[in-house]
Amino acid sequence: MGTVLKGGYVVELEPASVERVDLRIEGERIVARGEDLTPGPDDEVVALSGKLVFPGLVNAHHRLASVLSRGMVRPVPETYQALLEQVRWPFENALDLDAVQVGATAGGLESIQCGTTTLFDLHASPKAVTGSLLRIARGLHEVGVRGVLSYAVTDRMGAVGREEGLEETVSFARKARGRFRGQVGAGPVFTLGDDALQGLGEALNTTNTGLHFPLAEDPLDERLSTERHGNPPVTRLLNGNLLSPRAMAAHAGHLEWADLAQVLATGTWLVHTPRSNQGLEVGYAPALKFGARASLGTDGTSPDLFAEAQAAFLRSREAGQPIDVLRYLANGHRLASQVFEAAIGPMREGALADLLVLDYQSPTPLTAETLAWHVVHGLGSRHVEAVMVDGVWRVWARRPLSVNPTVVAEQSREAAAAVWARLTT
């Protein structure tokens, strides 16, 4: 028994195409594409009546727990270092395992309702390390989103905390299956001593994965890395053999060209996070220089990839360095395909069936030539009507099918209140 999507306009991002064809899905994969496909006797037929069939979006850098900090009363730090020490790190310290799981469910639900079917989460809860990634996976499993999870290893809590983080990120990567994969994660490079870098290298060899980490979000990363450890972040990462085509560096807004060129030469993915950079007032990352392996992430902001793509494009225009927003979105699919070792994104035979149905009534012709303009100026999460992950409908008629949004919101508010209370004490 399969599912046949009939009468929709199927979108491909790179090379761009918009074509009125049918898709047949069986199990977790697309098995046929063509005009006026004939359904089998047991197939379910979904009449789309001209709606868009769009690849499920990939969020290449997110922090799920941040949903619990929304609206939190906080100091107004004057510097990036003060932001870390007075806001971000105390919030992470206040997380317990129950809050971690609830935040994953709430953040995962928002993600899938916005059209994200795969997200890469870099997590930190220094006082609740062991089991945290499994709890995130449980939270995401309730929603049905695909997840690549890592724990942000750091020396910030001392050697014991560092070793707990290494064990957690390695343990999860070893046992992740199905819709989940693990990576080795790290905090900012200036929070990593030489022993931590060595431990990360050993973890990468053990898990055969890549490193997911923030890089040069602010000039502080280079200054403190040099002051504390004798070399800037890129030099230390290269000396530790930590950069590779499987590695993912988020932000990269404050690198000299020579350092950026060295990062690009390793094949490392660069993840652009323009809304987060704006919110933290850390400046504009030169996304046009990020090369062929650049994608988009939302960091701690709302998990809306359509909004992120629009912000990325508009900020690049403002900087006089316009980017190809369709390539950035398509690169998310290439990254996810690399990690899951299966085609994710192409609306073609053999690809995993991660897709969206968008109820978008285009006011102008929607073609391969105009697709980017519709993504930037028209399409949005408000148009997401249905979401399929692994061949299973997870959202239908804008309603999540496996969780009750009211219950999730109530649990999230309770968890947030408990975290905020721990912050005040």
From TrEMBL:
InterPro entries tied to this protein: Amidohydro-rel (IPR006680), Metal-dep_hydrolase_composite (IPR011059), Metal_Hydrolase (IPR032466), MTA/SAH_deaminase (IPR050287)
Any Pfam family hit: Amidohydro_1
Record carries keyword Hydrolase: yes
Keyword Aminoacyl-tRNA synthetase belongs to the record: no
Keywords: Hydrolase
Residue ranges annotated for the Amidohydrolase-related domain, each copy included: 52-393
The protein, known as: SsnA protein
